[in-house]
Structure formats: C-alpha cells, structure tokens
Design a protein that fits this description.
The chain is α/β, with parallel strands linked by helices. It contains eight helices and 19 strands. A six-stranded mixed β-sheet has the order 15-12-16-19-17-18, with helices on both faces. A five-stranded mixed β-sheet has the order 7-2-3-11-10. A hairpin with a 2-residue loop joins β8 and β9. Bound molecules: zinc ion. Zinc ion binds next to loops.
C-alpha cells in the first residue's frame, strides 16, 4: 500500500508538465483545500521522522527528493498554505512551504541527514477531510543520491517568439521572488508583494508610451526559479530584462539605502553583492529547485562571446537608469552602479540589469517603497531611461553613434 501510494504520487509528476507559460497565468484559482487543525507537523518518532499534513479534503500530491543539500519535496495541488509547518525533528534543518505554481503548493524539507521515504499515503477520513502521512527512515548518502528524482523543471523547450514586428521594444519585467519565496521581509512588508505591485505599475507606465511591449516573468504571487525567469524572457523575445528587487542587507554591509543598479560581472569583489546573489540562489534551494545543472563547454564558450557584445549595452542601460533616478530626485545609493553574479542576469544575448529599488532593511527606504509619490517618480524615471537607452542603443548598433 505504502509503496503503491508513493509511486501513485509519482504519476502526478507526469501530469506536472507545467510549462513555464503558467508563470504568466493570473491569480490562483479559488476553492483551495485548507490545512486542517494543528497544521503540518514534522516530528521524530522512534528512530524515524514523521510528516503529517491534515487537509480539509484530499488533493493530488507527489513527493520527490533532491540532493545538494538533501531535500524532500512534497507538492500539493490546490492547497492554501496559510500556516508554516511545525518542525520538531532533529533530522530536519529547515522547512518552507508556499505557492510554487498557480494551483500548486510546495513543502520543502532541508534534511540534516539522508532520509528515505518509507511510507507515504494520503488517507481520506469519514468526514471527507484527509491526511497525508509520511514516514522517513535513515539511509546512506549513496542510496539517497541514487533515489533522487528530479521532476521535470520548467527549463524545457519553449516556443520562441519572433521579434516585435511593431518596432516596439519588448521589455521583460521580473518582479523578484514570489510564492514559496517571499524575499526580504521587514516592517510588515514582503519584497515579493512590493515588487509585483511595482512591476504592474511600471508595466502600465511603459505601455502608455506606445513604444514598448511588456512581458512579466510572473504576474501573480507564484514562485518562479531564477533560471526560469531568464528562460521565460528569452522565449518571449525580450529585448531588455529588468529584474526588480528590494532586498535586506546584512548588518556587516552597513546601513545601505537608496537605489542601486546591478549588471553582471565575471569576478565579483563587492561583498554585499556576493551575499545578495548567494541569498537569491539559496531561496531557490529552499524552494526545492535542483541547481545541479550541467552546461556543456561549447555552449559556454558561445555564450561568453555573445555576452561580450551584450555587456556594454547592459552597462549603458545601468548608467542611463542611474542618471534617470537622479534627474527625478530619487535617492540613489552612494555607490549606485554595481556588479553582481546574479543568475537572472546571465542571459547572454539580452541586455539585463537588476534594480534594487531600495533596501527593506532601511526604514527610510521602506517608507519610500510604499509611497505613491515615490513609486510614480520611480516608474517614470525608469520609463524615461528606457526611452533614452532604446534610442541610443539603436543608433549604436547601426554604427551611427559611439
Ligand atoms: Zn530580492
């Protein structure tokens, strides 16, 4: 029975050929199952680890594991994850839960030791409610690795959209974080929410010029892995990629505030930038994304060549943005043009920048981020900078300007 349930759940993996396009989908559907009394609990019981998830009704679900670090991932269809799991196990380092795809919630357990799924079943109770119960038993690192199953990720073949026939410049807006990954949180604000609201506003402002088309890497509170954001933008034929963030900085990075624009660098020496990039990659791990992607060497060389042409275009965009922020009298960071190893900036052929609109760790920035006057000026500054950059970039590529 237990084995059957486990493999039954794996069948759902096949139905999970969720194309990346789903990230464009609008708000998640209503009529979700809810967590039952007591919520999800992870506990130690006589040499094994138990996971219990009570639900208001049974839902499709699936389980798989990932290595580096060892993680157990449980996906549920249509569950409203409104309370964090209660962790009472010494074998589990961290647990996160939240929306992963529209209609799908994910629970990720970062394991302190290799554990194997021994029993996994969803039981339907007499009153129509259900409970998912899972028993995990210690295993060897070798066996754990052999059993890891990578569910097909969103990084798969996408239809590539031809360049805009309209002559408009296609802008990809990438609101940072979302779903299971809330981003920075401070003063009652979540980076994921702020960035989605800002991106929606920016989209309207850009469309009003009639010079731009806009695609969003997410338009709801859903999780999109870092690599997938870039893939989505590329598949949508984006001419420019703008990633929007308002992270919190660690104390050792000082009381930084103000707007900062990041472009990609090979060797990053800026400690704050290193930590920011690391934290974003860490969020992907906590959301259960497999980062062990292996790129082949020839592809890497070709990408580097393309990147060499794209880099000055990204740099020019970053400089134009910073000048635009200043002309709208927005507060910019004391060192506003920086380099970082952010993986969302790695699209070789698309000029890409990451804008830290402010830092949630700064009270002054928080006040600005929720101010309508500030966001009106910030969106207009970005619009003007994009208009200027698009014209100059066109002339430069035609060889009419240096
Ligand atoms: Zn961020």
């Amino acid at each position: 029975m237990s084995r059957y349930s486990y493999w039954y759940s794996a069948v759902w993996a096949c139905s999970l050929l969720w194309c990346a396009q789903l990230a464009w989908a609008e708000e998640p559907r209503a009529n979700l199952a809810r967590l039952g009394d007591g919520g999800a609990v992870v506990s130690d019981a006589g040499g094994h680890v138990e996971l219990t998830v009570p639900l208001s009704r049974s839902v499709p679900w699936r389980v798989h594991t990932l290595d580096g670090p060892p993680r157990l991932i449980v996906d549920f269809s249509e569950v409203l994850w409104d309370a964090p799991p209660d962790v009472r196990s010494g074998s589990v380092l961290a647990v996160s839960a939240g929306v992963y795809r529209p209609g799908w919630s994910r629970l990720v357990m970062v394991l302190g030791e290799p554990l194997a799924v021994d029993v996994a079943e969803m039981r339907v109770l007499d009153d129509g409610s259900a409970v998912l119960q899972m028993r995990l038993v210690p295993t060897t690192a070798e066996d754990f690795r052999a059993a890891t199953g990578v569910v097909p990720e969103e990084l798969r073949q996408l239809d590539v959209v031809p360049p805009a026939a309209s002559g408009r410049v296609r802008i990809a807006l990438d609101p940072g974080h979302g779903g299971i990954d809330p981003g920075a949180q401070d003063g009652g604000l979540r980076e994921a929410d702020l960035m989605l609201a800002f991106a929606r506003q920016l989209k309207e402002v850009l469309l009003r010029t009639d010079r731009f088309e806009v695609v969003m890497t997410r338009s709801a509170d859903v999780f999109v892995p870092l690599e997938a954001r870039m893939t989505l933008a590329r598949a949508a034929g984006a001419d420019v990629f703008l990633s929007l963030h308002a992270d919190a900085l660690a104390e050792e990075d000082g009381m930084a505030s103000g707007m900062t624009v990041y472009t990609l660098a090979d060797a990053v020496t800026d400690q704050a930038a290193l930590r920011l990039a690391e934290r974003h990659a860490q969020n992907d791990i906590l959301a259960g994304v497999d980062l062990a992607g292996v790129e082949d060497e020839i592809a890497m060389v070709l990408m580097d060549l393309t990147r060499r042409e794209t880099r000055p275009r990204s740099e020019a965009l970053a400089n134009t943005l910073v000048a635009g922020f200043r002309s709208y009298e927005l507060v910019v960071n004391s060192n506003p043009s920086r380099h970082g190893g952010f993986s969302v900036l790695k699209a070789a052929e698309v000029p890409s920048v990451l804008i830290e609109l402010g830092f949630l760790s700064s009270a002054k920035d928080r006040a600005r981020l929720v101010s309508q006057d500030w966001s009106a000026r910030a969106t207009e500054a970005i619009r003007d900078a994009l208009l200027q950059w698009a014209d100059e970039d066109y002339l430069m590529r035609q060889g009419l300007m240096k």
